[in-house]
Write a structure and sequence with these properties.
Layout: E1 6-18, E2 26-38, E3 43-47, H1 54-61, E4 69-74, E5 77-78, H2 88-93, E6 94-97, H3 101-104, H4 111-121, H5 127-140, H6 146-150, H7 159-171, E7 177-181, H8 189-206, E8 209-214, E9 226-231, E10 234-240, H9 241-246, H10 251-258, H11 265-270, H12 300-304, E11 309-313, E12 316-319
Parallel strand pairs: 3-8, 3-9, 6-7, 7-8
Antiparallel strand pairs: 1-2, 1-4, 4-5, 9-10, 10-12, 11-12
Helix pairs in contact: 4-5, 5-7, 7-8
The protein binds iron/sulfur cluster.
Iron/sulfur cluster binds at residues 250-251, 289, 291-292, 295, 297-299, 302, 307, 320-322.
Length: 326
């Protein structure tokens, strides 16, 4: 059986929020016991509301944040506790596309320098080879004629064009893994699908493993083979994209889908119940299932015991007591 490119085992990222003189430390458990595998060339959408822990999970996987517990195995190597110097090779293999292209790209550099910087840091090629790579990267993200774009500065480009530069920069070292954190949420609706389609094309062409982080479940169908649903620091449901959209099992996933306007009246009727309330505090999360205060199906056991991840077959897994054989 093929080895996954990325294996995340019981990963936790907790932030210490206060340490009283005599009291125990308190932790905000942004990511709590998350496990999954990502195969080579596979695209996954990681979906959840703001504050669900999805950005923290992405940054912890990239080792931009130090994991609290658990393990991250990348390409057969345990990278969980590598020191910054030992992480140089990983920085080349795994990159990030950020939400805000305006903030992510240095305003004092032109596009050519922005794309050349990672090549210089990682000592890739001579001047001519770097030039070729930069022009090819601009062509791939369709910023043409490339000679025009290469010497412009970020303030001279639109949001969509800047995000194309950010994608080119994330791909220029030919990474095996890219994590894109809400890459289209700050862009005009008219260019969102264009950018997602471009990322998907490049992901397929280069066989990159991709994690697309989003709060917008409606955009995932353009992008990924798998959807992971995250809530309050936990993965709640994992399934192939079509299966999850057509046959959601977790009450939270059903609620997320219900929030998407659906032109089909049949689908509109299926999931009418959007649970009221807010995600819980991650410093003092509710016992049992973290979704129980909002769940219309909550039972006694849900308030006492955390549900296990239950395998429904075909890669579909759900963390919910409704599906446990008891
Ligand atoms: Fe609802 Fe219980 Fe399932 Fe949690 S475990 S989602 S509370 S039914």
């Amino acid at each position: 059986m093929a080895e996954p490119l990325l294996r995340v085992e019981n990963l936790c990222k907790w932030f210490e929020v206060r340490r009283g003189l005599f009291s125990k430390p308190l932790y905000l458990k942004a990511v709590d016991n998350v496990s999954f595998e990502l195969m080579r060339g596979e695209a996954v959408s990681l979906v959840g509301e703001s504050g669900s822990g999805k950005t923290t999970l992405g940054r912890t996987i990239l080792r931009l944040l130090e994991p609290t517990k658990g393990r991250i195995i990348f390409d057969g190597k345990d990278i969980t506790h590598l020191r910054p110097k030992e992480l140089m090779w990983y920085r080349r293999e795994a990159s990030l596309v950020q939400q805000d292209p305006y903030g992510a790209l240095p305003s004092f550099m032109n596009i050519y320098r922005i794309l050349e910087e990672p090549l210089l840091i990682h000592k890739v090629g001579d001047r001519e080879e770097r030039r070729e790579r930069i022009f090819k990267a601009l062509e791939e993200v369709r910023l043409t004629p490339v000679e025009d774009f290469a010497f412009k500065y970020p303030h001279m480009l639109s949001g969509g064009q800047l995000q194309r530069v950010a994608i080119a920069r994330a791909l220029i070292l030919r990474p095996k893994l890219v994590i894109a954190d809400e890459p289209v949420s700050m862009l005009d609706a008219s260019v969102r699908i264009e950018i997602l389609t471009l990322m998907r094309e490049l992901q397929e062409k280069r066989r990159i493993s991709f994690i697309y982080i989003t709060h917008d479940l409606s955009t995932t169908r353009y992008f990924s083979e798998w959807i992971y649903i995250m809530y309050a620091g936990h993965l709640m449901e994992i399934a192939p994209t079509k299966e999850l959209i057509s046959n959601p099992q977790h009450p939270y996933t059903q609620a997320l889908l219900a929030a998407i306007p659906d032109p089909d009246p049949e689908n509109r009727k299926r999931f009418r119940k959007v649970p009221p309330g807010e995600p819980p505090s991650l410093i003092n999360p509710p016992p049992g299932c973290r979704f129980h205060p909002r769940c219309p199906y909550a039972m006694d056991i849900c308030r006492r015991e955390e549900p296990p991840m239950i395998d429904l077959g075909g890669g579909h897994r759900v963390k919910c007591w409704l599906y446990a054989k008891r």
